[in-house]
Amino acid sequence: MIEFRGKTLLAARRPRRAKITLSELNDLYQPVWTRELALLHPAKVKLSLEDPRLFIFCGQLHVALTGCHFAFAPQRTSMVIARLDGNFTAQSLWIPEYGGSQIHEKNWQFFESDGDLFSVYSVNPHVILRHEDAQAHVAGWTACPIAMKPGTMLRGGAPPVRVGNEFYHWFHTVETAGGLIRYGFGLYTFDPMPPFTIRRWSNRILFSTGDQLSGWNKLVVFPCGALLRRGHWIISYGWQDRECRVALFDAGDVERQLQ
To answer: How far is CA 128 from CA 173, 188, 197, 217, 222, in A?
Structure first.
């Protein structure tokens, strides 16, 4: 979810994979219209696309996705970026290359700072990549001071949002106990310039769900987009890999959680 040229926009994955949609939301965060994005890689690589995240770079709307490559064994995943025109049509699509790439690359969260494009590659340690066309290089590598329950994994979530002189990154946590995999929201802020050191953070999980579905050993809430609007943080999130939902947090309460 993002605000772009006076519109609140939400990108989502249809139940059938490889189908990504874009919706405009009204003041109640309900769809006004929804359209499918035509996202064809120029090399016609067979990809299943999921996990869309909207971000703005150089005044243009972009969408970052996870691309699943079926031509490889084992299956690989990589980040895929598409630039959208004024009619929300994909004009170009590319796969950013990073020398440290692994078999499964996902959850890079993109943001613009001082006219350059960056992404949060890792939360712990806090690794930031700088992007130049399809190439990516490390721009910052600093320690992560967030101290949650041992064994809790910290991963990307919503694209960082700049407020004043710091970025807010709503990320997701994963912990496993008793055969149940539980997701949650976390939050930290970081400096707007290299090396993008984490400045403030919460050691608590700020949001989770207890609505377990029959036959499903996960409790999934995954932040996808963040807006600061009229004294509230509005977070779009995936719920149980089945629905897109929106949560509101009082901005003052959020600030009191940060140390």
So the answer is: 19, 14, 10, 32, 21
Q: What is the pLDDT of residues 88-134, one digit of tens each?
A: 888 888 889 886 567 788 899 999 999 999 999 999 999 999 999 89
Its pTM stands at: 0.94
Backbone angles phi, psi at 123, to 5 degrees: -85, -40
Indicate if the alpha-carbon torsion angle 178, 148, 237, 95 is positive or negative.
negative
Q: Is 241 helix (H, G, I), strand (E, B) or coil?
A: coil
Of the CA atoms within 13 Å of residue 78, those in its CB half-sphere come to 21
Determine phi and psi for 254, rounding to 5 degrees. -60, -45
Place of tokens 């613009």: 112
Q: What are the φ/ψ torsions at residue 29 (nearest 5 degrees)?
A: 60, 35
Q: Is the pLDDT of residue 72 over 60?
A: no
Amino acid at 199: R
